[in-house]
Structure formats: C-alpha cells, structure tokens
Amino acid sequence: MWFIYALLSAVFAASTSILAKIGIEDINSNLATAIRTAVVLIMAWGIVFITGTQFQIANITQKSWIFLILSGIATGLSWLFYYKALQIGEASKVIPIDKFSVVIAMVLAFVALKETVTVKSILGGILITLGTFVMIL
User: Fold this and answer.
1) CA distance 34 to 125
2) 34: burial class by Cβ within 10 Å (0-12, 13-18, 19+)?
3) pTM tops 0.70, yes or no
C-alpha cells in the first residue's frame, strides 16, 4: 500500500510543479507560495477534522513538536526557494534539481537516522545524481 501512496505523491508533486509554473507567471513568487500554503493548510486541517484525529494533539511530545516545527520551517523555505527558482528558471531544469533532494535526504537518513547504507542505495543515489546533471545540462 505504501507504494501506491508514494506513486500518488509523485504524480501530484509533478502536477504541482507544472500548475505552479503556470500560476506564478504574473505574480510574486512569495505571494504564490503563501497562497499555496494557505490551501495546503486548509486541506490538511480539513482531513484532520474529517478523520477525527484532532484529539490526538494532546498526546504530541515536546520532541515531536520541536521536530515538526523544524520540518515546517524547512518545508516553507523549500517552497519559497522552489517557487522563486520556478518563476525565473525553466521548469524542465528546476524540477530535476529540486528532485535531487532525494539524494540529499538519503545522505541525511544515513547520517542522522543511522539507516543502513547498501550498495543498492549508493548506486541509486549515484544514478539519480548523474540523471540530474544530464537533465540540467
């Protein structure tokens, strides 16, 4: 089931990039990011209330709060920089560089989360890196 969710995530992420490139054509990229964020906020809280999980807020630990807040800051910065790059650059070049975050996340997972480094993960990271460079040249 996780694979289906991951595949849907990829489809919607791809749609996001193209829709964003069209949508930011005549407006400031920071304003566009704020609008996008407001929509995501409404959708996310809507799902929380529809599923009745809002009552779990009291169970969130201080550690989880800190890391969720830091993750939110990282997401916000990522979106701000992504929209600016998308506004002034070609989508076909900005998108592959943005997706290079997969390799960066893998390295962080190995270092920060102590996940196992395998030949397969190293080879995959190298291929993604090479693919990124091929696409932006």
Assistant:
1) 32
2) middle
3) yes
Tokens of 102: 């997969």
Q: What does the alpha-carbon distance between residue 8 and residue 24 come to, in Å, rounded to a whole number? A: 24
pLDDT tens for the chain, 137 residues long, are 888 988 998 899 889 889 999 999 889 999 999 999 999 999 999 999 999 999 999 999 999 999 999 999 999 999 999 999 999 999 999 999 998 999 999 999 999 999 999 999 999 999 999 999 998 88
d(CA 106, CA 119): 13
Structure tokens at 54: 């809002």
Residue with tokens 């920089």: 81
91 CB neighbour count, 10 Å cutoff: 15
CB-CB contact of 97 with 123 (8 Å) = no
Contact status, residue 38 vs residue 101, Cβ threshold 8 Å: no
Q: Residue 28: CB partners within 8 Å, gap ≥ 6?
A: none
